[in-house]
Design brief:
By secondary structure, this protein is of the alpha/beta class. The chain has 2 domains: 222 residues, Leucine-rich Repeat Variant (Alpha Horseshoe), CATH 1.25.10; 183 residues, von Willebrand factor, type A domain (Rossmann fold, 3-Layer(aba) Sandwich), CATH 3.40.50.410. The chain is 51% helix and 9% strand. It has 22 helices and 6 strands. The chain has a 6-stranded mixed β-sheet, sandwiched between helices.
Length: 486
């Protein structure tokens, strides 16, 4: 039920035929007072995720009033919200003049504008690409590559011409552009670290023929084989320039019936008042190297997202291997410092072990008994209890004789108000559950999730932390966030 097959989200997959996208128009004036009130609370939210969720709801409506609300968010103080606004407006088919898009100063938002096929000044894009291309930061260089691919993709649909001079000019420009993109791609892939590959991988896969390999060495192998033809892609999110006609199916939040949407807003409001203690336990044997890299490199996404959804987020990290390895347990207590949490994650490395039983019991015991979990508020207090969540990520079972002990630990934790989830990170073709993982999560009041090759580990953790209710809608919301805001 929780499995995140939603990561092929509607913002990223090819849109349906026009007949499938045709919808009965709904006007904002038709919304109930309760729905309007819930929408307004989200739109005026203090944290940007609330405002972005409100934008996803606005995709439901086809009327000048809702279009005005969408375009009004082009001036939001958070660049993430502005990215959502341009993407949703394009999916709605709202026509956006170049003069309005040209007000945007962020290259990150410009990437969304170009991928939404919204007109944007070419000179501004060229200047941004040149500035980012010469940066020392590989992240900046990757953004330059993404912008360049979007420009190239838009040029590929230019109408044909019989004028030989124009044809020759286009061929020369295409060759020069390809050489510049090739140089950028090579520099990024050959220089990126293990952790950078974890976060860059899906972005590189979106603009080339490569798959989301997550590992730096696999990307280097791919580049050696495909350097002559990386097959650049613009990663467009709509099939055409917005022309007043809706061109994509409604997202999950927009599809909710009014009473359910009101309950979603109330649920998020209650959740926002809570504190979150999130403990991540990771199998650090060699077979888990890709998953560790993704968890490390995606920590920024997760922490930024959950910080915007909760009054206070603290993260603890524990890595576990086998008793024969160089170290068996590497644990870090809860911290509210996002930078420190990332440092703790990055300190973990994958080596030794394999798909054999690992020291999960000791990792669970130390985390549950030695970490500084926040207690329930005093009796009589109006403060809500903290959300206490443990997520176990691995591809091998506990040691023989320790599976039942892990199950008992989980049962005891659940009795104290904690939730324990397990993410099975073995190969998709392996149809068998990781032994004891389903039992541990069931005893811990959570559930066990299989992580497929195309699923995102960070999205899984975020979704599990937010809880089971509205998991489809919140899962897609976080997926859109990762597609637009990385």
């Amino acid at each position: 039920m929780i499995a995140m097959l939603l990561l092929s989200l509607s913002l990223c997959v090819a849109p349906p035929p026009a007949s499938e996208a045709t919808l009965v128009p709904v006007e904002l004036a038709d919304a109930t007072d309760a729905e309007r009130g819930a929408l307004e609370k989200l739109r005026q939210g203090e944290f940007w995720p609330s405002r972005a969720l409100g934008l996803m709801r606005l995709e439901r409506f086809d009327c000048p009033e809702s279009a005005l609300l969408l375009t009004g968010c082009f001036e939001d103080k958070a660049w993430q919200v502005r990215s959502y606004a341009f993407a949703i407006a394009a999916r709605r088919g709202v026509e956006i003049p170049e003069s309005l898009a040209a007000m945007e100063q962020s290259a990150l938002v410009a990437r969304t504008i170009l991928r939404a096929r919204i007109p944007f000044p070419q000179a501004r894009v060229t200047t941004a690409i040149e500035r980012l291309r010469v940066s020392e930061s590989l992240e900046d260089q990757l953004l330059a590559l993404e912008l360049g691919c979007a420009v190239r993709g838009a040029r590929s649909i230019e109408p044909p011409t019989d004028d030989p001079k124009i044809t020759r000019a286009r061929v020369a420009a295409d060759r020069q552009e390809s050489e510049a993109l090739d140089a950028l791609l090579s520099r990024i892939v050959m220089r990126m670290t293990r952790a950078e590959a974890g976060v860059f991988s899906s972005r590189l896969a979106a603009i080339t023929s490569g798959s989301d390999m997550k590992r730096d060495y696999r990307w280097r192998e791919w580049l050696r084989k495909h350097s002559s033809d990386p097959r650049y892609d613009g990663a467009f999110i709509v099939p055409r320039t917005p022309n007043g006609v809706r061109c994509a199916p409604l997202n999950a939040v927009a599809q909710l019936e009014a009473p359910d949407f009101v309950k979603l807003e109330e649920y998020l409001g209650a959740f926002a008042s809570k504190s979150i203690d999130l403990a991540i336990l990771i199998d650090c044997t060699a077979s888990m190297s890709g998953e560790i890299a993704e968890a490390q490199a995606g920590a920024d996404d997760l922490l930024a997202f959950l910080t915007g959804c909760s009054a206070s987020l603290r993260t603890a990290v524990a890595g576990y291997r086998d008793t024969r390895d160089r170290w068996e347990i590497s644990a870090f207590d809860f911290t509210s410092d996002a930078t420190l949490a990332r440092k703790n994650l990055w300190s973990l490395t994958a080596e030794g072990g394999g798909d054999e039983p690992e020291s999960l019991y000791r990792a669970m015991k130390e985390t549950l008994t030695k970490a500084s979990w926040r207690p329930d508020p005093p009796i009589g207090s109006n403060d809500p209890p903290p959300e206490r969540v443990m997520v176990i990520i691995g591809d091998a079972p506990p040691h023989v004789g320790e599976g039942g002990k892990c199950e008992e630990l989980a049962k005891s934790a659940a009795a104290k108000g904690m939730r324990i989830y397990t993410i099975q990170a073995h190969a998709a073709e392996n149809a068998k559950d990781v032994k004891w993982f389903p039992e541990i999560s069931l005893a811990g009041g959570g559930r066990s999730v299989r992580l497929g090759d195309e699923d995102s580990l960070i999205a899984e953790i975020a979704q599990l932390t937010l809880g089971d209710r509205f998991h489809d809608e919140l899962g897609e919301f976080f997926s859109v966030y990762r597609a637009l805001c990385r």
